[in-house]
Amino acid sequence: MSVLSSLYLNSNHLSGGIPAMPLGSKGLGILNLSKSMLEGKIPDVFTSRSYFTSLDLSFNKLQGEAPKTLLTAEYIGGA
């Protein structure tokens, strides 16, 4: 069975909000959703902050504070 360790969906014109579903799986270490049209608040859906090594949500229309579960990621992109 293959494990998805990196997911790059940047610059794909994604719109709407980030879905309220568990995204912090043990295999997914890098998530890039930058340069899209995502809007709204960043949901507190990242179930284990230790699983992400990189999360980039920059250049979107997100608002509000980042959930506390994200604060230990090595790199959090923001603009």
Automatic annotation (TrEMBL):
It comes from the Eukaryota. Its main location: other. InterPro entries: Leu-rich_rpt, LRR_dom_sf, PGIP. It is found in: Cell envelope. Transmembrane segments: none annotated. This is Uncharacterized protein.
